[in-house]
Amino acid sequence: MFTELQHVLHQGGPILWGLVFLGVGLYSVLASTWLGLKKVQHELAGHVFAGDDRRQIVRQFATFELDRLAWVERRLPFIGVLAAAAPLAGLLGTVSGMLVTFSGLASSSAAQPIDKISVGISEALITTQAGLLIAIPAAFLLALLRKQTQTTHATLQQRLHVALIPTT
After folding, report:
1. What span, in angstroms and rounded, lies between the C-alpha atoms of 72 and 39?
2. Using CA atoms, how far apart are residues 114 and 111, in angstroms rounded to an integer?
3. Residues 73-97: pLDDT tens digits?
4. What's CA 18's distance to the chain center, in Å?
5. Radius of gyration, alpha carbons of the chain
6. Chain segment 94-152, per-residue pLDDT in tens
7. Cα(110)–Cα(117) distance, rounded to whole angstroms?
């Protein structure tokens, strides 16, 4: 298993190594943001917003939103950029692999072109596949993270309205 992975990494060329690092970074940021959002949701569920006047209650909500939920929202565009970069890096690997392929075709040696052609095609296909394998699940996870963030915002707003209703 490990030798197969090592073989694929070698066939993918230097662009594949960049994609590996991009994927690890992307999913690390995604996981930490997801965990941060879950922590915010847990804190929101257990937090009691109360005060003597309406301004104090509104201030508590604004502080909660700015301190905790904004951290999650600031990370969403960065995750989107990383997810969008993966297929582009895969495309760069495709171009690099095709250059190796064309170089092999231009070679004058009889046996060497076949080797260079297969190496180039391997690099092109592996990097394209890796870029898509990184980006597609990340796009779905990012959409889910955005939806959960919007739901948390809605819950926060609902709690604000309930807290501001005067008790009789």
Report:
1. 10
2. 6
3. 999 999 999 999 999 999 999 999 9
4. 15
5. 25
6. 999 998 888 887 775 666 667 778 888 988 999 999 999 999 999 999 999 999 999 99
7. 12
- Residues, the chain, total? 168
Which two tokens mark 151? 């739901």
Separation of alpha carbons 103 and 143, rounded Å: 41
Q: Per residue in 25-73, pLDDT tens?
A: 999 999 999 999 999 888 888 777 766 677 887 888 888 788 888 999 9
Q: Tokens 């807290």, residue? A: 163
- Among the listed residues 50, 41, 18, the one whose alpha carbon sits nearest the alpha carbon of residue 130: 18
Tokens at 131, concatenated: 């870029």
For 154, the token pair is 């809605």
CB 98 within 8 A of CB 120: yes
